[in-house]
Design brief:
globular, Rossmann fold, 3-stranded parallel beta sheet, about 10% strand, alpha/beta
Length: about 110
């Protein structure tokens, strides 16, 4: 339900693709080549956020910025350690979400080296 609501809010300004299972995320990112990956650290993943980010960064998609979200404040440090470019606490502040999305689309968050 949160995924659908977030998608609905963002489609006014962005082209949005959603994936509800971790095993589909990497393939979707590889085929779509999005400008940003916005992911939850605590979704019902078959893999944790760390493994997902490691998989993303080991592939050709390693230049795509990742914004991780979580209701657990401790995940902020974990997200940084795992390589996420930004962290948003839940419940989401939509102004902060838009700010982070704009920030990541206007800058090169990752180098290809």
């Amino acid at each position: 339900m949160v995924l659908e609501a977030l998608s609905l809010v963002l489609t006014d300004k962005y082209e949005v693709y959603t994936v509800s299972q971790s095993k589909k995320l990497i393939g979707a990112v590889e085929s779509i080549h999005p400008d940003i990956v916005l992911m939850s650290a605590e979704m019902h993943w078959q893999f944790d956020g760390n493994l997902i980010l490691q998989s993303l960064f080991s592939k050709t998609v390693k230049t795509i910025p990742v914004i991780m979200m979580s209701a657990n404040p401790a995940d902020s440090e974990s997200a940084k350690a795992w390589g996420a470019d930004s962290f948003l606490p839940k419940p989401l502040d939509l102004n902060e979400l838009y700010y982070q999305l704009e920030k990541c689309t206007k800058m090169t968050c990752r180098s290809t080296a």
